[in-house]
Each structure stands twice: as structure tokens, then as C-alpha cells.
Design brief:
With 274 residues, the protein is α/β, with parallel strands linked by helices. The protein is 35% helix and 19% strand. The protein has 2 domains: 15-55 and 163-267, Vaccinia Virus protein VP39 (Rossmann fold), CATH 3.40.50.150; 65-151, Adenine-specific Methyltransferase, domain 2 (Orthogonal Bundle), CATH 1.10.1020.
């Protein structure tokens, strides 16, 4: 199975390795993804239903709109995109200012598809602060429409929640499967500036193990010469392997540097693929 074209670009997305990781997914009653982000792994869920969450409200609101009202998402994007082509760059900044007050999911989608390199970036005040990509018009509505309807069909079995990862996993039980793609250990979320506690996260992994819930974790790794290795305690997982997930989009935009990103994948179960 090939990954779907992305609705939004997401730093740290697993789209380039989604097919590879999806081979390791186990059949489950419910698939959980508590750091859903761009959602690249959702189509690979081997379950009857899914539960996904993120702490960014506008992102979850957008996923819910795509799931339930794809035609509205398409229409709202087309209106904004046409205005940008007809009226010029000031439309982007008008919509950006409005988004920073209202957090509209429709404005959010427009900004992510027309900003510089599709980079979702917030300042310390929680305001979207990326600029318009002056040399590209943004994805055309007709093309984005096909992508949105494809995702909407795929997501019918999912429920989306704007909650912390721990709350998302409150009702997980044996027979379910969890895919975890949190911020790198020792860092903050690039989108919310929220510190990520390793101790709390390891406690959650331990609780999942005690419930006999199978999970996959993409966690630490390297970006160029920078090392973000924060391997979980060895008693929490049973196997691991590394994957090349692409180039660091933040380094490309901020420092004009191309860096390979390697991440480690951890499993709390033995896979027949090894």
C-alpha cells in the first residue's frame, strides 16, 4: 500500500517510510495514534476503528471537518486560494491575522498550503508566523480536492480528539494497537512550545505493557551531526531498528542546510519481519 498524498505538510511526518512501518503494524480492535500530526500512518491501521488525538486544536478541528464535511473544506480553500491569485500577497497576511485570533481550521489549511515550504511554525505567543511562499501559488483547489476526498473516505472509522496523549490512551486495552510519534526526547513541541517529559512518557509505555497492549514508537534519532538519542529503558521494548525519514525541513528553511534524518523505531513485541 502506498501512503496518501498529504493534506498538510508536517515536520517529522512519517509519509516517506509509512509503507515500511505499516508492514510492522498488528491487527487490532482499535488503532490509537495520540500524536497524530499529519496523520501519515492512519491509512495503514489494521483495525475496525481508530482513535487519534493532538494538543493543537485547529489541527484536530481540521481533521474532523475533512472527515465529516469534505465538500465544505474544499469550498473554503477554493475561496481563499482564488482571492490570493486575484488580489495578491496581502490576502495571505489578512488571513494569517484572522487565524491568529480565531484559529479557524479553514484558515489553517489555507496557510499551511500557501506558506513558505509548507512549514507550520508558531512564535512564543502561539501565533502562526510563517510567510507567504512568493514563488509558488499554493496547491490548486482541484488537486487538493481529490486529496481531501480520499482522506475523508479513509478516516470514517476514526474519532479525533483535542487532548493530551495520556488522555487519548485512557481507555486502551489488550487487543488494541498504539502508534506513538512524540516530539524527540529532551525537546519541546515545535508547534506549542510545550516541554515533553520523558519520565511521564516512559511511565505511559510501562502502563501499556502492563495492559498487554502492543505499540510501535518512533522516537529518537539523528539529524545531520546532531544526536537526539533518548532510547527508552531496555525493559520497555523487545526490538528496534532505524529508518531514514528524509531531510530536516526546519534546518532546510531556517539554516539553508540539507540534513538526513534517521529515527529509531521501537516495538514492544517480536515481529516475524525480523
Amino acid at each position: 500500500m502506498k501512503p496518501l498524498q498529504p493534506v498538510i505538510k508536517w515536520s517529522g511526518s512519517k509519509r516517506t517510510v509509512a509503507s515500511q512501518l505499516g508492514e510492522f503494524f498488528l491487527p487490532a480492535n482499535t488503532y490509537y495514534e495520540p500524536f497524530v500530526g499529519g496523520g501519515a500512518m492512519m491509512p495503514f491501521a489494521k483495525s475496525r476503528r481508530g482513535k487519534a488525538s493532538d494538543i493543537i486544536p485547529e489541527l484536530i478541528n481540521l481533521w474532523n471537518e475533512i472527515k465529516n464535511y469534505p465538500e465544505k473544506v474544499v469550498a473554503e480553500y477554493e475561496v481563499r486560494w482564488n482571492r490570493l491569485q486575484d488580489e495578491g500577497y496581502q490576502v495571505f497576511y489578512e488571513i494569517r491575522d484572522r487565524f491568529n485570533k480565531t484559529k479557524s481550521p479553514f484558515d489553517f489549511l489555507f496557510l499551511t498550503r500557501t506558506c513558505l515550504n509548507g512549514m507550520i511554525r508558531y512564535n512564543r505567543a502561539g501565533e502562526f508566523n510563517n510567510s507567504l511562499h512568493l514563488t509558488r501559488p499554493g496547491i490548486a483547489p482541484q488537486r487538493l480536492s481529490a486529496i481531501i476526498y480520499q482522506w475523508s473516505t479513509c478516516m470514517k472509522k476514526f474519532d479525533f480528539f483535542n487532548v493530551d496523549y495520556r488522555e487519548c490512551l485512557d481507555d486502551v486495552k489488550k487487543g488494541d494497537f498504539v502508534f506513538l510519534d512524540p516530539p524527540y526526547g529532551g525537546t519541546k513541541s515545535r508547534y506549542t512550545q510545550t516541554p515533553f517529559s520523558l519520565d511521564e512518557f516512559y511511565h505511559v509505555l510501562d502502563q501499556l505493557n502492563r495492559k498487554e497492549v502492543n505499540w510501535m514508537l518512533t522516537f529518537d534519532g539523528t539529524s545531520g551531526e546532531r544526536n537526539y538519542t533518548f532510547a527508552p529503558p531496555e525493559d520497555l521494548y523487545k526490538s528496534s531498528f532505524k529508518v531514514k525519514t528524509g531531510k530536516s525541513s526546519f534546518r532546510k528553511v531556517i539554516d539553508k542546510v540539507q540534513e538526513d534524518v534517521l529515527e529509531t523505531v521501537y516495538l514492544n513485541y517480536k515481529s516475524s519481519l525480523f
